[in-house]
């Protein structure tokens, strides 16, 4: 934080913490202090009469008595002073405490119930315990984060009993047995609460401070279910759409199915690993990941690399490294992770186009240029759109994006007009009936497939348009085959599943525990939603024809594996909420 200081910075510093004050020595900007133990000349402090007071140049305000705060613990008085000072400097009239932070829920039979479910490490849970004068029954557990629980037993007099639940239960019992009474609950948090209700005595407090990471949220579990449904339906669709293609090439009709099943297996493994790895690690690794991606993209266009990056259908999009890899798919996720990291770092400067937004856009623009040189126009557009969404969510100005979009229009037109097949596809999009032989063939065949499905479809495996009429039926036009075989009902079901996926992704983003998690979740949700609705839009003639995979469904290894891996990252973000 201090490394990014500039003369316009405002620092709200804890006057009671010498380490913080030492770090801030010589840092440019204006300093404001807060303290619970003494007077400050510029900032907020707790007076001898326990009244929270704010002193700023030209004004002094008495806020309220610390005892009237609806928060427990002396550390939360300091937190309130800091938050109140920030509001005063920002010109805000008030602020509300966060939910799940030592939040009193209610009192029954002289037992106080307190929710501190945001205390997901041992230090936070220990601070929560120190906030009570009465004996505490502590509900503790979840997924172990590697910290010893023995520190929670100091002082043991305040902690009367511990109720342990979840995966961390054996370790909690091992660390605290002999220090305090520990009760093991084999099932859910609800069982732990019922046990606490039975155990608590008059005058006790029941505190939920898990000191562990939480299990996936309801949104996370819903996302897992929707993703699994899409993958299973995708395997069925790939088999149906590709069986004739496989037979025509002299292969077994199930060749592409088994190929896709192996990719799905790798993708689900990637999902499982990514759901366990703390997503914050990608913030530290954002530059190395992006650098590795740039090297892969550059290897596609450099002279002398044709042996590992052969030209297929006029484009060099795949690396042959023993298995086929499409670096532009990795670029989508890499750019999201990098843009989110930079946006968090530069958040207070994103409003400044020159010093905040422009450096981000130059890096993203360079990545898009490498993708365009393959050429892969649709992937470049998706990368730019995902990065723009992340930056907009982080606080970049709308007018900056509007100006950039206007400036980019001539470049986009040059990309279209300078490529014969792109121009033909745009012309076919504008006049689908008159250009069936010149660029509109795919669109017309797709519309015929969609229209042939009717309400309930022609039946699974009975598509006629996959019989050499519709190019790439298992990839770029798999939604058309789904609409033909499953009809309006099946097509609508797929659209609804993707809508639900997107809404769950946005819900996870909104409840993320930190700005980086929120921006990563928004970026990944944008990638999946944009990919899905671009593919569906092409199949329905709502967008010009271009090659876009339908996430989790289209045949193709790199996209399926990386989209499942990205879903795993999203699931890990969902664990950060209470």
Write up what this structure looks like.
- The chain is α/β, with parallel strands linked by helices and 578 residues long.
- The protein is 52% helix and 11% strand.
- It has helices at residues 18-23, 74-90, 122-129, 169-176, 189-199, 218-248, 255-276, 281-284, 286-301, 327-345, 353-372, 377-394, 398-417, 420-430, 441-452, 478-510, 515-539, 557-574, and strands spanning 10-14, 30-35, 43-46, 51-56, 59-65, 103-108, 111-115, 136-141, 159-165, 181-184, 205-208, 319-320, 324-325.
- It has a 6-stranded mixed sheet with strand order 6-7-11-8-9-10, sandwiched between helices. A 5-stranded mixed sheet has the order 1-2-3-4-5.
- Helix 10 runs parallel beside helix 12 (377-394) and helix 16 packs antiparallel against helix 17 (515-539).
- The protein is globular and about 85 Å long.
- The chain starts with 9 loop residues before the first strand and ends with a helix.
- The model has no long low-confidence stretch (mean pLDDT 85).
């Amino acid at each position: 934080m201090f490394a990014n200081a500039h003369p316009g910075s405002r620092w709200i510093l804890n006057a009671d913490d010498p380490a913080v004050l030492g770090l801030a020595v010589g840092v440019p900007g204006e300093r404001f202090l807060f303290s619970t133990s003494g007077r400050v000349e510029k900032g907020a402090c707790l007076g001898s009469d326990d009244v929270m007071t704010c002193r700023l140049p030209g004004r002094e305000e008495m806020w309220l008595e610390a005892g009237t705060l609806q928060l427990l613990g002396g550390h939360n008085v300091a937190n309130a002073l800091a938050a109140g000072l920030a509001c005063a400097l920002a010109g805000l009239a008030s602020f509300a405490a966060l939910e799940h932070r030592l939040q009193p829920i209610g009192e029954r039979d002289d037992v106080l119930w307190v929710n501190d479910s945001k205390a997901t490490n041992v230090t936070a849970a220990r601070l929560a315990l120190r906030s009570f004068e009465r004996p505490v029954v502590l509900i503790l557990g979840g997924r172990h984060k590697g910290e010893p629980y023995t520190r929670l037993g100091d002082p043991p007099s305040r902690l009367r009993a511990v109720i342990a639940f979840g995966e961390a239960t054996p370790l909690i019992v091992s660390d605290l047995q002999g220090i305090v009474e520990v009760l093991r609950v084999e099932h859910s948090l609800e069982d732990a609460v019922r046990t606490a209700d039975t155990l608590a005595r008059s005058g006790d407090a029941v505190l939920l401070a898990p000191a562990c990471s939480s299990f996936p949220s309801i949104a996370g579990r819903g996302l897992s279910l929707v993703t699994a449904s899409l993958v299973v339906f995708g395997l069925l669709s790939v088999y149906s759409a590709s069986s004739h293609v496989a037979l025509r090439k002299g292969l077994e009709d199930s060749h592409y199915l088994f190929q896709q099943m192996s990719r799905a297996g790798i993708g689900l493994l990637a999902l499982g690993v990514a759901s366990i790895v703390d997503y914050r690690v990608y913030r530290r690794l954002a530059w190395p990941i992006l650098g590795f991606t740039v090297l892969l993209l550059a290897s596609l266009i450099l002279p002398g690399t044709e042996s590992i990056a052969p030209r297929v259908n006029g484009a060099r999009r795949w690396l042959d490294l023993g298995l086929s890899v499409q670096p532009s798919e990795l670029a989508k996720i890499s750019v999201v992770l990098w843009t989110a990291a930079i946006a968090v770092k530069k958040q207070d400067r994103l409003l400044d186009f020159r010093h905040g937004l422009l450096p981000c856009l130059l890096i993203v623009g360079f990545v898009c240029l490498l993708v365009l040189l393959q050429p892969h126009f649709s992937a470049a557009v998706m990368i730019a759109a995902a990065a723009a969404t992340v930056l907009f969510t982080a606080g970049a100005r709308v007018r900056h994006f509007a100006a950039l979009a206007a400036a980019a229009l001539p470049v986009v037109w040059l990309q279209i007009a300078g490529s014969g097949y792109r121009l033909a596809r745009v012309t076919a999009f504008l006049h689908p009936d008159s250009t069936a032989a010149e660029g509109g063939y795919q669109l017309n065949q797709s519309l015929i497939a969609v229209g042939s499905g009717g309400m309930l479809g022609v039946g699974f495996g009975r598509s006629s348009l996959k019989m050499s009429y519709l190019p790439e039926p298992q990839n770029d036009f798999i939604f058309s085959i789904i609409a033909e075989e499953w009809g309006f009902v099946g097509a609508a079901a797929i659209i609804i599943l993707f809508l639900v996926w997107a809404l769950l992704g946005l819900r996870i983003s909104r409840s993320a525990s930190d700005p980086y998690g929120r921006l990563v979740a928004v970026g990944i949700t944008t990638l999946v939603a944009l990919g899905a609705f671009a593919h569906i839009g092409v199949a329905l003639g709502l967008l010009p024809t271009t090659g876009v995979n339908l996430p989790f469904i289209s045949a193709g290894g790199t996209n399926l594996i990386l989209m499942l891996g990205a879903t795993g990252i999203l699931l890990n973000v969902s664990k950060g909420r209470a």
